[in-house]
Amino acid sequence: MTPRSTPWKAFLVFLGPLMLSNILQSLSGTINNVYLGQMIGVRALAAVSAFFPILFFFISFILGLGTGASVLIGQAHGARDLGKVKAIAGTALAVALVGGLAVSLFGGAFTRTLLAMLGTPADILLDATAYAHVVLLSIPGLFAFLLVTAMMRGVGDTVTPLLSLVVFTAVGLLVTPALIRGWAGLPALGVTSGAWASLGSLLVTLAWLAVHLRRRGHPLAPDATLLRALWVDWKLLRAVLRIGVPSGVQIVVVALAEVAVLSLVNGFGSDATAAYGVVTQVLSYVQFPAMSIAITASILGAQAIGAGHADRLGDITRAGLVLNLLITTSLVVLTLLCSRAIIGLFITSPSVIELAQGLLHIVLWSSILLGMAGVLGGVMRASGTVLAPTAISISCILAVELPVAYLLSRRIGIDGVWIAYPVTFGAILALQAIYYRQVWRKRAIHRMV
Question: Its domain of life (predicted)?
């Protein structure tokens, strides 16, 4: 973005690939849930939904690691230091693989106990445990896949991650129903079909990715240099963690909060657990554009600061807020108008459809508030202000979301759990806006100009 250019065009150029990648990343799980809900039933969907927050908790560590690694790789790539790119990638991959193997080997021993502690309804506990055991087998490959795609964006490659997600989704789309029904001589695996299909998709995608990267001579292609770098360089790891830990901590707190919320939801029975799974899936798609806009605001803000044009941060912030208002609001309205049909893609039980629709109407509009807060936090992070936006989000999750969800669920039932989300998102937006206007804008910009 040049000093005199408008941020609108730059925003739109970034948003397309980001939103499409985010959508495809979640589409595989959505397809599995649709297949399970339609081809097996509500109990199967509930069993899968019961394990999702635990899986997200594991993934949160890798997302933080990927954030730090991609920033350092971007710096090394900009300096044309391919050796350092490989060294950073090797260190991050080594940590991801060791962590993934540890989770895969030891996680299964505690899965049933953990699910029971979270109050997973007895009628789905066995299926949820079986599903979790298969998912845990795929954790090393999943960690590697998520980390590699994040690091590729660090070298300016957004197309290959998108293509790899297309491969992953396409394989799952074909294999999942075949495993549910036992087509083409395959075993009928029931509730675990989606997990086995995801494992197969990961193996195919990682193989395709390795061949594709080598053919292109990609900076992150698996070659002898990368293999030699596949060990933990503690100095590099400290640098990666210094950047990635704040983001990782926030993601971990969000994951733990979702685990706590799920334990409240489980107390209302397996129908409520199934409705939780559907609502979170629909909500994630509505929030993807808001997340992408926040990421884009952070990227454009960092570029403006690096180019010595900190005066453009106000324009970037306004563009992000307006785009969030237009795009996210449009998606919220469209989804609410079509909510019954959308929920019907996942489940067939009329009572669960009615429950999920009511919950969706309570929470969906608050995605607009979350998107606004994301833009403000993203711009502040671009200037290096990380701790305050992160602390605000974490404090609201711990001090607002969890207490409100607990108290209201005891007073008015399952609706109270979902009312906690708009209350929390509103609190985050209010505090981020106050800090942005009263503290950050007065201090940070003056230091940069």
Answer: Bacteria
